[in-house]
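Predict the holo structure. Ligand: protoporphyrin IX containing FE.
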Amino acid sequence: MDKKSKDNHGKETMTNQQGHPVTDNQNVRTVGNRGPTTLENYDFIEKISHFDREKIPERIVHARGTGAYGYFQSYGTVNGEPISNYTRAKVFTNTETQTPVFLRFSTVVHGKHSPETLRDPRGFAIKFYTEDGNWDLVGNNLKIFFIRDPLKFPDMIHAFRPDPVTNVQNLERMFDFISESPEAMHMVTFVFSPWGIPATYRHMQGSGVHTYKWVNHEGKAVLVKYHWEPVQGIKNLTQKEANKIQGENFNHATQDLYEAIENGDYPEWELYVQIMEDGEHPELDFDPLDATKLWYKDDYPWHKVGKLVLNRNPENFHAEVEQSAFGTGVLVDGLDFSDDKMLQGRTYSYSDTQRYRVGANYLQLPVNKPHKNVVTNQTGGMMDFRQDYGDFKNPHVDYEPSTIAGLKEAKNAGVEHEPYVEGRLQRQPISRENNFGQAGETYRRLNDWEKDDLINNLVSALLGCHKDIQDKMLDMFYKCDKDYGARVEKGLKSGMESKEEMMEDAMHDAEEMGHPSDPY
Ligand code: HEM
């Protein structure tokens, strides 16, 4: 993977961070060659102290990932109509511009060096450096999610991640949570099928998952969902295939992406949107803002609106990938939030964690800062390295409004979209939950081999769960689809019998074989 390092080896003289030449990088300074060391050993102390601080906190979720640069180009139309009929966002209306992007792929639950073959949704987070500032679309590979209320997110992640006592992931904790969260059944059906282990990052779809809004020049909004389709095609793995890859290489997805780009085999995705009129749509049996639901293609066709190409690898993983920061609040003019309560919960969480994980000035880092000029009164804070204020002509006046100088507000680019909202302040689930209908439909639409793998994966996970958790899960599988429930039930029954036999065999073998002796 690393051709460049050999060429550079030995060419440049090493200095410390103060620019002093390092004449001996092998021996610490000591009294006599056996030690003790002395405290004035500045080079050594600086080297070790910097090393001690080399890592930043890993992401609280999506810690394992990789990224690449490229561009997005809009086709300028939606279903034959000018795209400006729907959105005034220049990233879509300006078809001449190739908007630079940075995309980070990830897995969700486990830590920064965990295997990339694990069953998990995959993150698909894109930063568009548009002429109007940054737009982040922080999505996943699957088109839906486990929950629909942001208050449940920390509990969900606690249940999915390793046990706080043993530090081992325990699927009983996961299914304990799911058995009390029926809205998760649709996502569980995807995640425990081969769709839960994409073969590589290049061979998976992406989706914004949530419903967003597009706003046109008249301030009129439509509801919109975003989907990325890989030109390379979609490939998923069975559990058996994933086990084999994991035994040989647990970085296979990162390596695959890096090598494809180094070899000039640039991965591409086409962007599709689904559009619905703004509103609550009482005629539907689900809520269009519910992130656990698909909008079926037959009812809401996918319209192709642009293309994404990844063509450059980062040069410094820590600086560019680890410190990259995406957020659902990062929108540009012509794009807006919907009322989806989980989308709003996320929007608070991302920049909050990034101020902790990377620091208050995380937006000054090259990977995060917009490609257009930033002219702001928000200065100062730890590690603010701006010295001239760019286009800020009179930084004495770092407040607004002012009659002396300083900055002025920008003009609106079109009519403001001003949705009318009223209602009782309350804590209530949404009205049209319909937790099982689409989950059953998704089960029925899987191929036979996908169904077989799904049932095997669910059965082997549920075999480790208490009987009452198994029973609650079975009840919900039956509610999704009778065949789905019956197959899981049958698998559990025969799995229990063979589990008992296997335990007896294993104990028998261990007794016969005895224990190895220590040869040293
Ligand atoms: C990462 C919170 C739901 C996709 C993160 C991070 C947090 C978070 C705190 C770490 C960010 C960082 O350290 O930079 C939440 C909350 C959610 C939620 C509170 C629900 C209430 C979702 C959903 C999706 C998603 C529904 C998919 C649509 C991602 C992705 C990343 C991420 C792709 C990794 C971004 C990167 O590569 O840096 N999330 N999340 N999350 N989340 Fe979520």
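The pocket of protoporphyrin IX containing FE is lined by residues 59-62, 65, 104, 106, 123, 125, 138-140, 145, 150, 153, 209, 291, 324-326, 342, 345-346, 349-350, 353-354, 357 (CB under 6 Å). The first helix runs from residue 4 to 8.
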